[in-house]
Amino acid sequence: MLKQSRVGALRLRRNEGGGGLSLPQLFDFVIALARADSSVAHSLRNHLNVTETFLIDRSRIPVFEEYLGRVAKGETFGTSATELGKQNVGDLKYDTAITSTPDGLRLSGRKFYSTGNLYADYLYVYAVNAQGDPTKVVVPASRQGVDIADDWDGFGQEFTGSGSTTYTNVAVDDHDVVDDAEGTKLPYFATFPQLYLSAVVAGILQRIVDDAVVLLKARERNFYHAVEAVPADDPLPQTVIGRLASAAHLARVGVLEAAQWLGQAFDSAATGNPDAQLFERAAESTARTKVVIDELALKAAGELFEIAGASAIRRGNRLDRHWRNLRTVTAHNPISYKALAIGRKLVHGTPLPSLSYF
């Protein structure tokens, strides 16, 4: 249904078949979608991220116009970047490789954390070429030799399709190889996917508030020693809901402020001259937002149970899913390293790390 609605084209111009949304409007939509279903929102992360790459460099990399045409039709892109192994997380080194064979170019390797690939039409793959240099290739998800496994076994975000994607001697045409030599080098290229995760967190927080209100209104009895006989009239659970709503508000505001900076940074990049200060401002705003809202959200997921006591823990309510989903999303990038980087910048002027995760 989301593909039919061309949700993946929300950032394209209206005259191109898109939604014409600004970047803050897109993130506000992601928050709303995560409020309804956090796995669905999360599964679109890689597609929407790579679409921004296409938009920024559409005038410099001709094939990106072709990809945007596919996006406009409702087709989606997954990505294959992360690999399991001993290499440092986020150092952009890959074992997945494109090699030259008597039958032409072939792609082989195994990727993990393939969020959204189960639902994608095309896969944007990070690999190395025969010379060992980083390269990217786009192949149809249905091409022979591509195996997208539904093997994600995390305790949260269970329907994001975040398992493994294996490439076994996948045929690669010259046209499939992305020549991005003329592409814009962004000072911070991973801010969008990091902020996206915080948008999912903000959406889950909104849903926690919704569930808390429903839960309280549905209660017909209270503790004998409570302040009021009717639970919905009791100021104590009302106070809990007030705290939950305040956390959800702060999360949304933080995400949208960072999105404003990132939108301005992307606008500068589209001209071919990215503004380094805007990108760093966006990266720092995103990092600060994550440090605060991750802790607030995880606390809120536990505080929800103060609304109803033991009756809230029944499996049929599935209220534990909020903590599990939040813990899964927030585990992508520990806040301790984020806080450390922010502190070093303030105390010593050390720039934020500029590879993955910022």
Secondary structure topology:
Blueprint lengths: L22 H14 L1 H6 L1 H12 L6 H10 L4 E4 L16 E5 L2 E8 L10 E7 L5 E7 L5 E3 L16 E8 L4 E2 L12 H28 L16 H36 L5 H28 L16 H11 L4 H14 L10
Parallel strand pairs: 1-4
Antiparallel strand pairs: 2-3, 3-7, 4-5, 5-8, 6-7
Helix pairs in contact: 1-5, 1-6, 3-4, 5-6, 5-7, 5-8, 6-7, 7-8, 7-9
InterPro entries: Acyl-CoA_DH_C, Acyl-CoA_Oxase/DH_mid-dom_sf, AcylCo_DH-like_C, AcylCoA_DH/ox_N_sf, AcylCoA_DH/oxidase_NM_dom_sf
Pfam family, one: Acyl-CoA_dh_2
Keywords: Oxidoreductase
Brief synopsis:
The chain has 358 residues and is an alpha+beta fold. It contains 9 helices and 8 strands.
CATH H-level superfamily title of the largest domain: Butyryl-CoA Dehydrogenase, subunit A, domain 3
Distance between the termini: 32 Å
Mean of residue pLDDT?
93
The CATH top-level class label of the largest domain: Mainly Alpha
Q: Give the overall shape, derived from the CA principal axes.
A: globular
Q: Which strands sit side by side, in order, in the main sheet?
A: 1-4-5-8
Q: Which fold name is given in CATH as the topology of the largest domain?
A: Butyryl-CoA Dehydrogenase, subunit A, domain 3
CATH architecture of the largest domain: Up-down Bundle
| Uncertain stretches of 5 or more adjacent residues | none
Q: Which structural category do the helix and sheet elements fall into?
A: alpha+beta
Q: Please describe the biggest sheet, giving its number of strands, its sense, and whether it closes into a barrel.
A: 4 strands, mixed
What series of H and E elements makes up the topology?
A: HHHHEEEEEEEEHHHHH
Number of helices: 9
Compute the gyration radius: what is it?
Answer: 22 Å
Query: What percent strand?
Result: 5-15%
Number of domain units:
3
Give the helix level as a range of percent: 40-55%
